[in-house]
Amino acid sequence: MFETNHRIVGNGVVSYSEIGSICTDELGCTHTEFVLFAACESGQTMRVVAKLERDFDGTHLDRVDEANEVVQVLASAETSYSWTSATKAFERKAFQIDDYIESKENCACAMAFPELRNGKEKFEGL
Length: 126
Description:
Layout: E1 2-10, E2 13-24, E3 28-39, E4 44-54, E5 60-62, H1 64-75, H2 83-91, E6 97-101, H3 107-112
Antiparallel strand pairs: 1-2, 2-3, 3-4, 4-5, 4-6
C-alpha cells in the first residue's frame, strides 16, 4: 500500500488515500483504494472503502470521486465538526467504514502536524 492525495481537512485532521493490490495464483488479484480520515494527535482513523476490484468474483466498485467529494465538503466547512458527524457524512452515502486507533504516525500527519505525534511510532519515509 502506498499513500497519496494528502490533504489537511481540519485542525490536526488529515485525509489521504491508500492504494494497493494483492495477487495470488488461486484467486487472482484484488485492487483496493481507501480514503482515510485521521486525527493526528489521537490516532483515531476512519478508513473508507472507495475502490474494490476482485478478479475471482468480478467485483468492480469505484466510488473514489464520491468519497473525495465528502472529504472536500468536510474540509471546506466553515464550522468545526465532530468525529461522529464526519462518520455520518460517509454513512449517509452508504460507504463501508472501519474506525480504529492507529499506533503509527502516517505520512500526512508527519508532514502537516509532526508536533501531534503524541507517542505514536514515527513515520520514517520523509
